[in-house]
Amino acid sequence: MSLKSIAALLFAKHATRQINNWASKPLQTQEKVFKQLISTAKNTAFGKDHGFDKITSHQDFVAQVPIRDYEALRTYVDRVVAGEEDILWPGKPLYFAKTSGTTSGAKYIPLTKESMPTHIKAARNAILCYINQTKKAAFVDGKMIFLQGSPEMTTQNGIGLGRLSGIVAHYVPKYLLKNRLPSWKTNCIEDWETKVDAIVQETKAENMTVISGIPPWVQMYFEKLTQATGEKTGDLFKNFELFIYGGVNFEPYRAKFEALIGRKVPSIELFPASEGFFAFQDSQHEKGMLLQLDSGIFYEFVAADDFFTENPKRHTITQVQLGVNYVLLISTSAGLWGYNIGDTVEFTSLTPYRVIVTGRIKHYISAFGEHVIAKEVETAMKQAMDSFGFSISEFTVAPQTNPTNGELAYHEWFIEFENPIDNLPEIAQKLDAILQSQNSYYKDLLDGNMLQQLKISPLEKGAFQGFMKSQGKLGGQNKVPRLSNDRKIADSLAIFKLKNP
User: Fold this and answer.
1) 374-496: CATH topology
2) What are phi and psi of 298, to 5 degrees?
């Protein structure tokens, strides 16, 4: 065992002890974060506008600070972008993480000197928890790749501007720089397909031990590796030991990954966003990701079923329940307050607090009042894959509200299968039955002849990559929405439907 491996094991034990310390005291930890946030920001423009000097409790905070999304907070953010100081947080932010919004155009999410280290620490701790639990540390001597956006940045009024994954690339610890791939030059390539081709050439002869990224784009990397070498990823990288991912549910991709790799590889799930690093998988045996209660983020939760009512109840960490779908609200050391990031979560454990991501509050199907969410369709897909033994590259679901020939409306599943399928009716029936078992509203609509059974539209190979490329969103942190409540994505995918499925 190398000195670096021994040091990693010792460091992992120390870090895990610290994590367990705050995780075992959730109320005290969150109260401390809350008080620090309010005290630090009370003299900012936002703090003065919202009476932070009078806030001493969560009830005060709820009364003073309404729930906001980016558009509602934009008047303040625009002042920060314009170069003003002490608006949302003292001073100016270090960076803006630039993301694409559906209603707001480009979004500028601030990253401050207080918030930036929490992103790095959480990612590091995810790996350290894995090391401490498994006692496996040899991978730290190999090469590690993180498929991410370009680290190149511009400046706006003296503030760095770039993609979060690219900004984080500037914070790779010195002891990992020799292990890190791809090269800086390759990482700066903007065109995703060109970039992945270059990464393949740089890595195919290396001792890759850790690979990280959003599953659909890592899948593309694995496919190109096989095309270039004729070998499965696991044979090419014999010491490939750990896959780290986030952004989407991995289960629909798992079968395809194991086929491309040629074996099973342990994985760690992360829940990062430009707005904060919220959770990571701390256990290989327990379901869910450990909520980061000690990372300068104060959390609130609103039951998704109540979110669009007037004055929905905002719950703190000790008020949540298992099995409830919650909209996640955050207040952070980057100056976001009562902020709706758009994600929904469900708690899988309350000791400690672990969550799974169930979808997006705006990504659902409720054309007829069924309110189908991402977790439900992903569960149906996983169980159908297990039952019939097929694998897929990607899928998305949309309602068909105006079918032809007097048919009843239905949900249309656009699926890119890995291999030709000859039992589509049976698969559709299975998917529908599993969806009904999870969602009583959907079942009632079918029983009441308001909807008919879902239909599958199989797509050509490469359909989703072609769609994302046509939208200018190929690669990086971009992902296909699992659900839509309209036909915009469905209509764009229509050209990729198989002519003779």
Assistant:
1) GMP Synthetase; Chain A, domain 3 (3.30.300)
2) -100, 125
